[in-house]
Every structure is written in structure tokens, then in C-alpha cells.
Amino acid sequence: MLTWLLLVLATVAFVLILLTMYWCYVNYNYFFKMKNLPGPSPLPILGNALYFKELDGFLNTLLKLKSKYGSPFKITIGFQYPWVIISDSKFMTFFLSSNKYITKSQDYNFFRSWLGDGLLTSTGKQWKIHRKILTPAFHFDILEKFLDVFEKNVEIMLNRWRNEIGTTNFDVFPFVRLLTLDIICETALRTEINAQIDNNSDYVRSVQLLNRILMDRALSLFLWHDSIYMHSDHSIRERSAVKIINSLTDSVIKRRKEEIENQWDSHVEDSGDERKLAFLDLLLQAEADGERLSDISIRDEVNTFMFEGHDTTASAISFSLYNISQHPEVQKKIVEELNTISNKGNNSGHFTYTDLQEMKYLEAVIKETLRMYPPVPLFGRLATEDILYGNQ
Ligand code: HEM
Ligand SMILES: *[C@@H]1O[C@H](CO)[C@@H](O)[C@H](O)[C@H]1NC(C)=O
Ligand SMILES: *[C@@H]1O[C@H](CO)[C@@H](O)[C@H](O)[C@H]1NC(C)=O
Ligand SMILES: *[C@@H]1O[C@H](CO)[C@@H](O)[C@H](O)[C@H]1NC(C)=O
């Protein structure tokens, strides 16, 4: 009996020692290269994981640590590479304006089953090539071509609010999220999915499910490790959602390719509708120009835009509306500004692209909301070499 007990204890001790050694190896930089950085002291193996015990507290914990240690500070969680958290504008400018530090941090792997090697998750040479192809899609002027799409879809949302909701208090976010999904599909893919009219289609449900799952995973330390995550409920649902999304994405790409081929075959000139050079066409055209994007690459970029383009904007719009609703005096000023602009022209309620540029006060309100409630509160890079900043 005693020998068994001793044997078990010895094995446990041995495993713990091995884990600790491995942990020290992973955290080598934490102890030596970052020794001058402030930060909470870690426990062996767990690191600072105990700080993140409360599940809803991930961001709040980071904020608390930030107010204690300033910027930058270091933390380490389990066997992840240690983190240096930067939140001051000087260091961020230094970091983000460098074209050297473009390797995404390991957390981005969570997104890979959906977004593959799209812009958000990719790195190095592939990122540079794709970024060059897609940069025109980020140009401000693109927005002008789609004002009617914005207007049409917003009108659908407002009608639903008038007819279904009346004057009660309600959460705008679920509605705005369908709005932005409709808009990103219609503008980037030129495909109408009518999510606002039917929010129950497989595609819409899958997109919303994946957003939820990815957020849950990012904020819950238990699900970080692939070998644990693989066996979770989340992972099974994630895989089936990705399948559904990909089948829609693939069919949109296929249809557009056929349209383009038919155009060439029959030598029909493009109808002059310039907005056809939307995002999807930039990808397909790049292929035609010999830059060779595989079908999978194109699908990854399309999925990336669907993801990046709708939840972020929905969050920004919802927080703006919320904050405006809490401040009637701000709301009044916004309405005054809009009235002034619409009285100048005789457009009877249709704002033009130039009108948008005159909405200075509204713009300031939205920017302040983005500062207060950033839709993407953190993002990360992996240091592939020593980074010297100041005297650190
Ligand atoms: C308020 C709205 C938005 C916010 C706050 C936001 C925020 C961000 C942030 C912080 C990043 C950097 C992530 C990183 O480098 O790790 C990013 C990247 C990206 N965003 Fe957005 N975004 C918004 C809207 C959009 C929209 C509407 C689209 C597409 C139509 C979009 C497409 C992308 C793409 C493709 C990337 C990856 C770019 C690259 O790495 O080259 N985003 N976004
Ligand atoms: C989603 O669809 C259901 C059923 O049609 C409807 O009751 C609900 O209000 C819709 N939700 C949103 C946010 O549109
Ligand atoms: C709205 O934003 C302001 C900053 O512009 C902030 O001080 C305030 O707390 C926010 N109000 C609400 C109700 O969210
Ligand atoms: C109002 O409309 C008329 C005719 O449609 C146009 O000639 C005029 O320039 C417009 N005025 C303004 C200020 O836009």
C-alpha cells in the first residue's frame, strides 16, 4: 500500500517538475529579456491565470492590471507565450507603423477554421500580396457607390422598428447586426441574403453562432488549448457552422466567376456599372492578372470580410445609438446638424456623399464612442525577434 502511495506521489512530483521545467522554457523571455518590465508575479505552470478566474472579467482584469502597472506591462498565462500589453499611444505608434512586426499572435489561430489564411489571420509574404490586391477595397470613395444600398437596408430596419417595436425599450444590437450583415453581403459580394427579413436561414444562424463561439473561446482560458477545445461542444458546432458558411461562399464565388467568363466569351462590354469592381471582383481580377489566388484563398478573404465587416460595425453603431439615447442634448445637436444639411439641398431626405462629409458633429460622436467602447478592444502580434523600445 505504502509503496503504491509513494509511487503515485513520485509520479505526480515528477510530472509537476517536468511541467515546471517546460513552463520555465516557454517563459524564458519573460524572466530574462523582459526582466525590467513591470507585471504581476507568476506562479509556476499557471502563470498569472488566477487573475482571470471570473469568466466575464477578462477585459476588466486587463484594465485593472493596466492601471496598476501602466504601459507596457507583462503577464503570462499557462503555456502561452508571455504577453506584453501595450496601451500608450507612443509605443503603439512605434509598433504599428513598423512594417517588421506583422506576425499575428497565436491567439489568431482560433479564427483559422473559419477565416483560414485571410488578411486578418495571415502573415508575411502572403499577407503582403493579398493586402496589396485588396487595398483598393478599403478606399473611402468605394462607399459613395453604395449609398443606395445603405439607405435601402436602413429603411428596412427602421420600418421594422416602427411597426414591430413601437415605443418600448429594446436592445438594438440584434437588429443592427442583421442590417450590417445584409450590407456587407450586398456591397462586397453583391449578393442579397435578406437577413433582416429572414434571420433564420442557415447562413445567418451559422455566422451568428460562429461569432458567439469565437468570443466565448477567446474569453475562456479553458478552451484555449486545441487539444481540449477539440473535444468540446463548441468545436463540433463550430465545424458544422463553417461547413454551411463555406458552401454559400463557394457558390457566390462560382456564380461570379461564371458571370465574368460569360462576359468574356460573348465579348459583351462591362455594362459600365463601376460598382461591379467591388471586393470580390478585386480578388477574381487579381487571379486573372496572373497573381494566382486559389479558390481557397479567395474563400478565406471573403469569409474574413464577412466576419470583420459586420460584427464590428454593428457594435459601433449600437453603442453609438445607446450613448446618444442616454444624452438627449447630444441627440438634439445631431438632429439640428442633419436638418441644416438637408435644408441646404433639395434632396428630400436622401443624403449625398458630400452631405455625409459635412456631418462633423455626428462624426465626433461616433469617434468618441469608438474610443469609449472599441469594437475590437485588443489585437496581438508575435515577436519573432527582439524588439528594442526606449531603454527596454
Ligand atoms: C467600426 C468598425 C471596425 C473596427 C473597429 C475594425 C477594427 C479592426 C482592427 C482593430 C483591425 C486590426 C486587427 C489586427 O491587425 O490584428 C482590423 C483589421 C481588419 N478589418 Fe476591420 N474594423 C472595422 C470594420 C471593418 C469593415 C467594415 C471591414 C470590411 C469591409 C473590415 C475588414 C478588416 C480586415 C480585412 C482586416 C485585416 C486587415 C489586415 O490585416 O490587413 N473591418 N479591423
Ligand atoms: C428573427 O426572426 C424571428 C422570427 O421571424 C423574429 O420573431 C425576431 O424578431 C427576429 N429577430 C430580429 C433581430 O430580427
Ligand atoms: C457616452 O459617452 C461619453 C463620452 O463621450 C461618456 O462619458 C459617457 O459615459 C457615455 N454615456 C453612456 C450612457 O454610455
Ligand atoms: C434643386 O433642384 C433643382 C432641380 O432639380 C436643381 O436645379 C437645383 O440645383 C437644386 N438645388 C440645390 C441647392 O441643390
TrEMBL record:
Its cofactor is heme. Pfam families: p450 (PF00067). The keyword Membrane applies. InterPro entries: Cyt_P450, Cyt_P450_E_grp-I, Cyt_P450_sf, Cytochrome_P450_Monoox. GO terms for molecular function: heme binding; iron ion binding; monooxygenase activity; oxidoreductase activity, acting on paired donors, with incorporation or reduction of molecular oxygen. The chain crosses the membrane at residues 6-25. Keywords: Heme, Iron, Membrane, Metal-binding, Monooxygenase, Oxidoreductase, Transmembrane, Transmembrane helix. Belongs to the cytochrome P450 family. This is Cytochrome P450 4d2-like. The gene is LOC108733182.
